[in-house]
Amino acid sequence: MKIAVASGKGGTGKTLVSTNLFNVIQKSGFAVDLIDCDAEEPNALQFIHADLISQKSVTQNIPVIDKEACTFCGKCEAYCHYNAIVVLPKLRHIQVVEDLCHDCGACEYACPAGAISWKSKTTGTIRTYAVNNGSSLIEGRIEIGVYSSVPLIKEVMKSSHHRQLAIVDAPPGTSCPFIATVSAADFMVLVTEPTPFGLNDLKLSVEILQQLDKSFGIIVNRAGLGDHRVYDFIAKNKLLLLDEIPFDPRIAKSYSEGKLITDNMPNYHKHFLQLFSRIKKHLQYDRNSYT
Amino acid sequence: MIEIAILSGKGGTGKSSLSAALATLAAKIVAADCDVDAANLHLVLNPKDYREEVYVSGQKAVIDPDRCTNCGICLSYCRFEAISNKGGIHRIIETACDGCQLCDRVCPENAIHMVSHDKSRWFVGDIANGKMIHARLAPGEDNSGKLVNIVRDQARETAFEIQSDIILIDGPPGIGCPVISSLTGVDKVLLVAEPSLSGVHDLKRIVELTQHFRVQTYVVINKYDLNDALSDAIVNWCRSVQIPVIGQLPFDRAVVDAMVNCESVTNWAPDSTISNAIKRIWNKLLQHEQAKSF
After folding, report:
1. Domain range holding A243?
2. Does residue B25 sit in the same domain as residue B150?
3. Which CDD domains does this chain map to (chain B) (predicted)?
4. Which of residues 184-203 of B touch A (CB under 8 A)?
5. pLDDT over 70 percentage in chain A
6. Neighbours of B222 (CB within 10 A)
7. Is A41 within 8 Å of B145 when comparing Cβ atoms?
8. What pLDDT, on the 0 to 100 scale, is given for residue B288?
C-alpha cells in the first residue's frame, strides 16, 4: 500500500506532511517506508535520523556508434524522437547527444549496419536508510545536469515491498515525474494552501487524478492565511477534505531547522495520528465500496 | 536585451510573487512564465490574451485490437514497461508510454499507430506595461522543456517587436529538464532562497546547476526572519562561492494579501517596507547590467 503525498505547487508542505505522517506511524510500532521521490530536490533525509544501509546507482543506456561500421545513412536520426542523434552524411559525421537520449532503443532497431551498441550512464542514486525496526527511508536523487528523473522514480517506487505500507513524498507539478509517482501509488494526499496560487495548482492536480481514476484526499496547509476559495472548490466538487494544518509560525520555524513538529510539539503528534486514522478509515471504506 | 530568470530549486520560496513584483516595476517588459507545469504568474499579471497556439507535447501509441495478433513483439522491444499483457491481450499503458514509436515500427501487423497529444496551449497577451507569454501544459503531458523553449523564443520575438529591453522569466522548481530549458542562455539568474535546511540544500544543488551552465547568478533570501542563523549561513556560503546576495526580504502578510487580491505586492502596497526592498533588488539587478556594459 503506497500513499503518495503530492501537490501541483511547490512549497505547500508535501515534505512536512509526508515526514510527519511517517514519523507518527513508525513511532506507534508499525513498519512503514518513507519513499522520497522528489528526486530533483530530495529533502526527507533532513528530517529523519537514519543510518545508510545500502545504495545503488541507477543507469540508463546510451547508444555508442561504431564509426567503422556506420554508413551515415541517417535512419537512426530519423527514428529518434528525441533529437538525440545528429548525422551529417556529406561530412561522414555522426554524434549522440547523450543528454537528450531517452534510452528507447529505436536507433539500434533502425540501423541496417549493426553499428550501434550500448554503454551505461549513471543518472542517479537510490539510497536506503534504516530508521527503526522494519521502517526505512528510501531516497532517489538524480545527478545534477540530468534532464529526466522519471526512470529513477520508477526504480525508487519499486524499491519498497508492495506489502509494506509506504508514504511517498512526490515531486511537484503535474508532468512526467509526478505521473511516474502517481501511477505506482494506491492513494493520493494532495497538499494545498488557501491562496489563488494554491487553488490554481490544486485544480490541475485534481484534473489529472480524476483522469487517472485515483482516489485522493486534500489537506489545506497554512489554514487561516489567504482566503476561502480553496474550500469553495473542495465543497462544490464534493472532494474529500482530509485535514487542515493551521498557519503557525512555529511550524515554519521547526521546519526550517529540520525538526519534525510531531516530535517537538505534542499536539501535532496527536494531529497526525488522527490524520492517519482518517486516511485508514477512508481506504477501508474505499476498498469496501468496490466489493 | 537582457534575459533574467527567477529560479529557486525548492518550490514555494516566492518565485512567482517576486517575479510579479519585479515585472510591475519595469517601465516596459516581456514577462515569460516558464513554469508551464503549474503556471501562476498570469493570476497576478492578468494578461489580455490575443493569441492562443496549440502545442503538441508528444505522441502516445495506440493498439488496434482488431489487427493485433498478440504476438508480443512490441512488448519485447518496449523499454518503458508501457505495454501490458493480461491474459494474452496486449495494451498500451498510456501513462508509461514515452512516445518513442518503436512498437509501431516493430509491429508486423501494422496494428499500432501514434496519436498526437494536442491539449497543451501557449498564449501571448497584453499586460499593463508590456506583454506576457505563458503556457499551459495539459496535466500529465510530456516534454515541458520543449514548451519552455517555445515560450522563451516567443518572448524574444515579442521583446524585439515592442522594443523591450527586458525579458523576465518566472521559472519552475527543481533542477530537471524544464529548469535547464529556462536557464540556458539567459544573462542572469536570480535565485530565491529560503532559510530552512531544505532551502539551503536545494539552493546548493541549483547553484551547482547554474555554475554548470556558467550563468551569472544572484541570490535573494526570502522570509529571512524565519531563521536568522540560517540566513547568515546562506550569506556566508554565497560569499564563499562568490555569488552576490542582493537582497533579504522579511515575511510580510502584505505579500499574501496582495496574492489573494491577485495583485503584485509592489502595486498592492507600493510604499511598504517590502516593496521598497524589492525596488532595491530590481535596481541592483539592472545596475550590475549597466556596469557590465560600460
Report:
1. 2-58+123-290
2. yes
3. SIMIBI_bact_arch
4. 194-199, 201-202
5. 98
6. 25
7. no
8. 65
Q: How far is B40 from chain A (nearest CA, A)?
A: 6
Domain closes at, from B88, B117, B146: B117
Per the CB < 8 A criterion, the answer to whether B243 and A269 are in contact is: no
Distance from CA of B287 to the nearest CA of A (A): 30
Is A262 an 8 Å CB contact of chain B?
Answer: no
Q: Is the ipTM of this complex over 0.90?
A: no
> What one-character-per-residue DSSP string does chain A give?
-EEEEE-SSTTSSHHHHHHHHHHHHHHTT--EEEEE--TTS--GGGT---EEEEEEEEEEEEEEE-TTT-----HHHHH-TT--EEEEGGGTEEEE-GGG-----HHHHH-TT--EEEEEEEEEEEEEEEEETTEEEEEEEEPTT-S--HHHHHHHHHTS-TTSEEEEEPPSSSSHHHHHHHHT-SEEEEEE-SSHHHHHHHHHHHHHHHHTT--EEEEEEEETBS-SHHHHHHHHTT--EEEEEE--HHHHHHHHTT--HHHH-HHHHHHHHHHHHHHHHHHHHHHHHH-
pLDDT confidence band for A285 (50 / 70 / 90): low
Question: With an 8 Å Cβ cutoff, are A197 and B16 in contact?
Answer: yes
What confidence tens digit (pLDDT) does each residue in B185-231 have? 999 999 999 999 999 999 999 999 999 999 999 999 999 999 999 99
Domain that holds residue B106: 59-117
Chain A stretch 196-255, residues whose beta carbon is closer than 8 A to a beta carbon of chain B: 196-197, 200-201, 204-205, 207-208, 211-212, 225-227, 252-253, 255
Total tally of structural domains belonging to chain A: 2
Is B220 found in the same domain as B197? yes
Domains contained in chain B, number = 2
- Interface membership of A40 toward B (CB under 8 Å): yes
Q: Which three cell numbers stand for residue A272?
A: 497526525
Average of per-residue pLDDT values in chain B: 94
Taking the CA of residue B143 and the nearest CA in chain A, the distance in Å comes to 8
**Residue B196's closest chain A neighbor by CA?**
A256
Q: Which residues of B touch A142 (CB under 8 A)?
A: 175-176
Contacts of A84 in chain B (CB under 8 A): none
